[in-house]
Write a structure and sequence with these properties.
alpha+beta; GMP Synthetase, Chain A, domain 3; 3-stranded mixed sheet; 4 helices; about 15% strand
């Protein structure tokens, strides 16, 4: 995580509250998708929050992301209701798919498929 201490604290608060919102309040439009909020990065003025979502069991990740984008105003309103006493600014939410897990799996598959010849001992 980069940024100032203030950005980091505010990011953790937003991450925690969004997790609760997705878990309890907005479960209806997610269906059976298992969603994890991997990270929240805030702009220096705290007006924009980039939310990275890990969708590990989703069949069509882009469809889930589009559905979340469609309900973004509802999610932001629920976030505002939850943190209104702790923050002056409710940031605009921008959602992204976190691809760290996919990249790690791809690298692991590449390493498994490497054909490394055995070392021959020279006498």
């Amino acid at each position: 995580m980069s940024g100032t201490v203030r950005q980091q604290k505010y990011g953790r608060l937003i991450q925690k509250e969004l997790s609760e919102i997705f878990l309890r309040d907005k479960r209806g439009f997610l269906g059976n998708t298992f969603l994890t909020i991997a990270e929240v990065k805030l702009s220096p003025d705290l007006s924009i929050a980039k939310v990275y979502l890990s969708l590990s069991l989703a069949k069509d990740k882009n469809a889930v992301l589009q559905n979340i984008q469609h309900h973004k105003s509802e999610i932001r309103k629920a976030l505002g209701n939850r943190i209104r006493n702790q923050a002056r600014i409710i940031p605009d939410l921008v959602f992204f798919i976190d691809e760290v897990e996919d990249n790690a799996q791809r690298i692991e598959d590449l390493l498994k498929n490497l054909n490394i010849p055995k070392e021959t001992s020279e006498e």
